[in-house]
Design brief:
Elements (H helix, E strand, L loop, with lengths): L1 H27 L3 H16 L9 E6 L1 H9 L11 H10 L4 E4 L11 H14 L2 E8 L16 E2 L12 E3 L3 H4 L4 E4 L12 E3 L1 E4 L2 E4 L10 E4 L2 E4 L2 E3 L6 E3 L11 E3 H5 L11 H7 L3 E6 L7 E2 L7 E2 H14 L4 E2 L5 H18 L3 H26 L1 E2 L3 H33 L5 H9 L7 E15 L1 H5 L4 H21 L3 E6 L2 E6 L8 H24 L7 E17 L4 E6 L1 H16 L3 E4 H7 L3 E10 L7 E9 L5 H18 L3 H14 L4 H15 L10 E2 L4
């Protein structure tokens, strides 16, 4: 119940922090500063795009070399309009799909009307020429837009909200009558002055007019459900009807010819074209572009510091023809997606208290998002967004970490303070990572319980000053406690000169019984070292008695609201305490119950000691003396163990004479074997006074 409540609280806080983060990002998205850097992050991806080969767009450039060559023949800039006629004728003859001029012809030729008529005738005969017009957002005197009607479409009821122009500027009338189409040549940069997108259409009055490079594709477009479709596929536009351009890397160049390439092969319309010119133009859209310095306006793009405007138009046309224009994934779903990811990150941090694990989770989000964004960008032509999500992850991580430190961290510090005095550092760290394992209240666990006591310590304390007794106890407790903690045991309490401890909670240990037994053996080793030190001071040696038992017990924080202890209670706890006292009866140092012996398996050496019933209990239990780790017994000690257990077997079958002889052999071999001496005396008494017929071999203790 407590764990479920904690999980719900973590989910709530993660969602709340994520919501606050999304609101912050949404407000930042409204600022030009943040939006600019978001766009610049996309530019980084654009620069590393793979170049496209053999596009359907050809640049027919009028560069400085062309201007110089004609200048030497006496033809100065601006050229007569009739100079452009061969360009149109050659492109049409070579099989161009469309001829698009990125040159405004809004004023009559300075060479006279005949000059305009020469180009107008070439335009009319080609039938595939598209000329630019200028749709301005600046107000001007009222204009008659009737002449434009055949170049636009009536605005559908459901259409994107394209920007509305206030005025227009057309080519001279001689060109308009024979042109295939007109397109808006005006481009609008983003907030930072960089050209990354182009409006497919511009609204003027109740009509929509295409961009220059959209005009050739008008017959493939349709409007449905408020969207623009090209070849039956929706074109992703933003709220102003602009298409996000997909540039093809910073090294990309369009196939190109120069004006001189055309002029050098053109003598008359009847002459055959060179293979170079015809091969370059056939089945391509040709954009006639001014590239000589000073003849074109420099436009910074996502991948170049400066490019002619025709380059931007060419990229748009290429995107539309290839269908690989960029699309912003998310759109209206951007903030819900950000909220979901932020909530997942926040929850992962709140429930995972490890610093390094949290760092790894954070890095998975922070590095995983660019990886995902890159994959989507380079394989699906989709832009997920970068800076806003990265900032969101940092904000969520910062806020959840702060919250965790001030709340969950406080709980962990309480846990550390509560457990560090009687639990190993390993277990404390585990509890910090999993606080639910130390929840308040009781929890039934199968554990191994340890009780110890110092024999005759009360008598010893009467002979020495209290300060020395305290010093001795502190030394004793320090040594024994270290052994218990190193084996991942938990010290429950110190009782006078005794220690109560357990293994298997709050952190489950599969080998808790073996750990407890090995710890008990090590305690006896440490006790011997303490006795060596005491002997040098003339202090009699101390004897440490230990009882071990495994079984179910209630483990948890118990007490009042003002003061509580992490402790264990239950009948099995009492039994372990009684076993410690049983050592007095047999003169042994460590007694373990049968349950503990079975749980410890083959990691220990034991001697079957007796079958007893402790005071207050009728059910007998088999007890064992813990002799050492597996394989640690000498040959002589192993022999005495076998003799003792054979004697115990005879004793239980009422062969008291046989048992007496075997126990006598053990005592003879080791006069210090008090358990054998006890059983020997018991056999002698039973030989003299035969037991009742219902004798079961159980030794019933009359005192604790």
């Amino acid at each position: 119940m407590a764990e479920s409540s904690s999980r719900k609280k973590s989910i709530f806080m993660a969602c709340l922090i994520s919501l606050v983060t999304v609101l912050l990002i949404a407000s930042l998205d409204q600022s030009d500063f943040f939006k600019t850097y978001e766009l610049k992050s996309m530019d980084l991806f654009q620069r590393f795009q793979t170049r496209v080969e053999n596009t359907e767009v050809l640049m027919l450039e009028i560069g400085q070399q062309d201007l110089t060559a004609l200048s030497e023949k006496g033809i100065q800039w601006p050229w007569p309009r009739q100079i452009y006629a061969p360009l149109v004728e050659v492109c049409a003859k070579a099989g161009a799909k469309g001829i698009l001029f990125d040159i405004l012809f809004t004023e009559p030729s300075s060479y006279g009307k005949e000059d305009d008529l020469a180009l107008a005738q070439a335009i009319r005969e080609a039938g595939s020429v598209f000329l630019p017009m200028s749709l301005s957002f600046k107000a001007s005197a009222k204009q008659d837009a009737f002449v434009l009607t055949r170049f636009g479409i009536t605005r559908p009821d459901l259409a994107p909200e394209f920007r509305e122009a206030s005025s227009f500027l057309l080519p001279v009338s001689e060109f308009v009558t024979g042109v295939r189409g007109l397109g808006n040549v005006i481009l609008s940069p983003d907030r930072d002055g960089v050209y990354r997108s182009v409006a497919l259409f511009t609204r003027l009055h109740e009509s929509l007019f295409p961009s220059l490079t959209v005009a050739p594709l008008m017959n493939r477009m349709e409007f449905k459900g408020g969207k623009v479709f090209l070849n039956g596929k929706a074109v992703p536009l933003d709220h102003e009807g602009q298409l996000l351009l997909h540039f093809y890397g910073k090294e990309f160049q369009f196939p190109k010819l120069t004006a001189l390439d055309i002029f050098s092969t053109y003598q008359s319309p009847e002459d055959p074209l060179s293979r170079k010119v015809e091969g370059a133009i056939k089945d391509r859209y040709v954009i006639v572009a001014l590239t000589a310095p000073g003849l074109y306006d420099l436009k910074p793009t996502a991948v170049t510091s400066v490019s002619p405007g025709a380059y931007v138009h060419g990229v748009l046309l290429t995107n539309l023809l290839r269908g690989d224009h960029l699309r912003e994934v998310g759109g209206a779903w951007k903030y819900p997606l950000m909220f979901l990811l932020g909530s997942l990150l926040g929850y992962a941090i709140l429930v995972n208290v490890s610093f390094w694990r949290n760092t790894i989770v954070f890095l998975v989000f922070v590095l995983g998002w660019p990886a995902l964004a890159s994959s989507m960008f380079f394989t699906q032509d989709a832009w997920l967004g970068f800076l806003s999500f990265e900032l969101a992850f940092f904000l969520v991580f910062g806020m959840t970490s702060t919250y965790s430190y001030n709340t969950e961290g406080k709980k962990r510090r309480v846990i550390r303070q509560l457990f560090s005095c009687y639990m190993s550092e390993v277990l404390v760290k585990e509890l910090e990572s999993n606080p639910q394992k130390a929840r308040l209240g009781g929890d039934r666990r199968f554990i191994t319980i340890f009780f110890s006591d110092l024999a005759n310590f009360t008598t010893l304390s009467e002979r020495f000053e209290p300060e020395r007794i305290v010093s001795l106890l502190n030394e004793y407790f320090t040594e024994m406690s270290q052994v218990i903690l190193d084996s991942q045991g938990v010290i429950d309490k110190y009782q006078g000169d005794g220690i109560m401890a357990f293994w298997g909670a709050p952190i489950p240990l599969l080998d808790h019984a073996a750990r407890a037994c090995l710890a008990a053996l090590e305690c006896q080793v440490r006790m011997n070292k303490i006795n060596e030190s005491l002997s040098r001071e003339g202090i009699p040696p101390l004897s440490m008695r230990i009882g071990l038992h495994s079984g179910d017990a209630v483990v948890g924080n118990m007490g009042s609201a003002q003061r509580f202890d992490y402790t264990i209670i239950g009948d099995n706890v009492n039994l372990a305490s009684r076993l410690e006292g049983v050592n007095k009866q047999f003169g042994t140092q460590v007694i373990v119950s049968e349950t503990t012996r079975l749980q410890a398996g083959d990691r220990i050496e034991v001697r079957d000691l007796d079958l007893i019933a402790v005071k207050g209990k009728e059910k007998p239990i088999r007890i064992y003396e813990l002799l050492g780790e597996k394989g640690s017994l000498t040959g002589e000690r192993e022999k005495r163990k076998v003799l003792y257990e054979e004697g115990l077997e005879s004793y239980r079958t009422k062969d008291f004479a046989g048992a007496r002889r075997l126990f006598a052999q053990v005592v003879e071999a080791n006069p210090e074997d008090h358990a054998a001496a006890v059983l020997l005396k018991r056999c002698e008494e039973l030989e003299d006074n035969a037991p009742a017929p219902d004798w079961d071999g159980v030794f019933r203790l009359r005192q604790k």
